[in-house]
Amino acid sequence: MRIHCIALTASSTLAVAAALAFTPSSSLHSTIPSTTTTTTITTAAFASHHDSTSRSSRRCNRLNVPLHMTEESSSSADTVAATASDVQAAQPHETVDEYRTGLKQIGNRAAKPTTIDITMKFGGSSLANAGRIDHVTALIASQIKLGYRPRAVVCSAMGKTTNSLLSAGDFALEGRVNIDAIRTLHNACLNEFELSDNLKEEITFLLNECEDMLNGVRLIQELSPKSLDQLVSYGERCSVRIVAARLNQIGVPAQAFDAWDVGILTDSNFGDAHLLPSASASIKNAFQNRIDPDVVAVVTGFIGHDPNGKITTLGRGGSDLTATAIGAICGLDEIQVWKDVDGILTADPRLVDAAMPVDDVSYDEASELAYFGAQILHPIAMQPAMKYDVPVRVKNSYNPSAVGTIIRNREGPAPRLVTAITCKRNIQLLDIESTQMLGAYGFLANVFKDLEQHRLSVDVLASSEVSISLTLDKKQSIEQTQEAFQKVSEYAKVTQKNDRAILTLISDVERSSEVLEIAFRVFTARGIKIEMMSQGASKVNISFVLRMDQIDDAIISLHSCYFEDKCVVAI
Question: What is the mean pLDDT of residues 280-286?
């Protein structure tokens, strides 16, 4: 007897199963030749036998499919007949069930290895020139080979392009229009990669449009926030087209998208726009129904569209926000932000040589670190990830094998006494003391009302019934600050101290006594004077205000105690 091994694909098996399902029992048996019997061979193994004088049997290892066996050996006739009678006794629906069971096993065996869906974000320094773009695209390709599937790659403008565009706007107001340096940067990439003429025409069209806009600014002598948002958008719009083209060139299917084409919809607050509630549905619809999951969507960071179709920018941390919004709303497995360090470090490595990566931090810890000076993600960019509980991983584009730092929800106490040390430099410290009688009603309310009217943002504060100490960021307008001081001086004495810094310990405040014991022993030993302290509002933050000329010594000394084995005091 000879058994012919028939290898069927999943689609052909489905077709056979469907045909059997709709074939009457009598018709089914009539289609089987009288000289042929039917049986089912399991996937585990079945032997392909030749004539009795043939060579030894071989494994076929095929799918779970019915096979036709033609009787050619009289010695096997009885076995074949018994098998045939068993099959003929079975009902048609039982045969179909066998097919369906086989199909399920086929699907399980054909399933791809686990795919990790991610967004990846790269900043301007990672895309500074053709060499960096080549490195980034190769990195994306390598991540795909490791099992990651980038649903979106969010890109900033190349290098310093955004600053160059802002400068071009200022020059246009003075009557000069020149974007030659911006053209040279982008054309160098096009030529280096020998990209298509169609792409060259598209980039040229965008840069010509940018130049036409600047000529309009030169003529009307006006550059409104709305016009400024459109002006800076050309950087991202050019960079994503080059990155997508390079990915396709190296064999990674990719397509460039302007942010509004993937659902990034904002309000009309030009220069500092916020995502609209409707953006969630539009982003989800774009990635679920319009964009092939196996095509990398290369998306412009930092920009969006308002309800009138005008270009807006998302302000500080805008590109990070684009990446976290897409990753969180689409419910992806991870949001990756690629930088030039091995994740979040225990301190600024430019100051502390022994700074080391932190394996994981909570969303709250990451937000506090970012707010108080660490160059990770802007706090606003953390909000979508926190809302949808999607982890964010900070990785090093120069060292992709490093695990990086994962930012995620964590319940319970921190696994360490102090997570990291950061600082904010060049801040102002204000001591405001009421000149009215003790317990005067509304003192604090009046102070904050006047600060709000002049758009002044407070970093850290400490208060009593008739006095308050607070810090103001160095980026506040000097004119607005002075106007606010004059207003507050009508009912309070204001003492202003410049050249101050905020030192922040990201720590477990439930163990604040241990943290503060070490900190104040270090401050005493090093002669560091603390002018203000804040603790309690945040459950992960203890902040100190001190003089600028002492901040470096304070950070280095504290780091040696919390993270190294060479503390300046006995602990």
Answer: 97
